[in-house]
Amino acid sequence: MVAVKLAEAMSLLLVACLSCSAATYHLDPVSGSMTNPGTAEQPWSTLEAVASAGKSFIAGDELWLRTGHHGSPTIRGHNDGEVLIRIENGARATLRNLVVRAASNWRVQGLEISPETAPEFERITLVNLAADATRIVIENCEIHTIRDSSGWTAADWDGKACNGVSISGPNNRVSANRLLNVNFGISVTGASNVVERNVIENFSGDGLRGLGDYGVFEFNTVKNCYAVNGNHDDGFQSWSVGRGGVGTGVVRGIVLRGNRIFNYEDANQTHRGTLQGIGCFDGFFEDWIIENNEIRTDHWHGITLSGARNCRIVNNTVVDLNTTSPGPPWIRIGPHKDGTASSGNIIRNNLA
Fold this sequence. Notes:
Helices cover 9% and strands 41% of the residues. By secondary structure, the protein is mainly beta.
């Protein structure tokens, strides 16, 4: 009797495991329908429609997107393991923008995200990871306002350029994306996020912003700043916020490693301005590591921390792009703007 009951239990467990095996779903904006089962022969429609339908997925599931426009999806759902959203081989799948909220364990790979691909243009943040989004990976995507900004006036840059990526939640990763013709490139307010190996090319705000504790920014390229408004543009910028407002808190544990920040590549670039390299003026900044970065700029601030404790600035190279003012750039730690001295820092083996 015991053996029979054990066999029945094993059989039920096997059936349960088979029913929970990961699946591949296919999405086709041209011929798909949400009444279909999502198979290769009978695909669903757009990613926006699938997200709006509230479908749930399990670890290992994959959503393969075919060529066409997939709308403006808001991805929701906490997965036990990673669920992949990717393009089918050789496809060009586009979104106007992407929002991820109340979600975890999603990977988005290889999409083109731009309002230029939508039926109507709208200035919007192109990728938005909300405060309740965690363990999200955005990788190998093309993220741009438009592909060609060569005809843009200063007013076009000021009024049309979209913000690239905003990360408010913790423990996310943005990796190996190309951001083109944007306002602010990648802005991080959540804790423990990784921003790596991205290219931010042609921007009119700041290339990178890191306000969340324990963020890692490494091996990114930030280049070609367009000065079109009153923003003081930075390749990377941070500031603290406390109970008394900006400059009354602490930003802890940021790592800036192996990044390349170039004010411009073409001396004849239109709307070319001066770019602060790594500009952090409203500390305190504690336990930072800034190492092996290359900064080519036309400004005094190559690397500046105003209000720093126990930070390391080592093995960086800062180069002046021309002989005009402002500049040449420096590597500098100064007091907090309230006059409190910085302490416990190391500046070593840098070249300016």
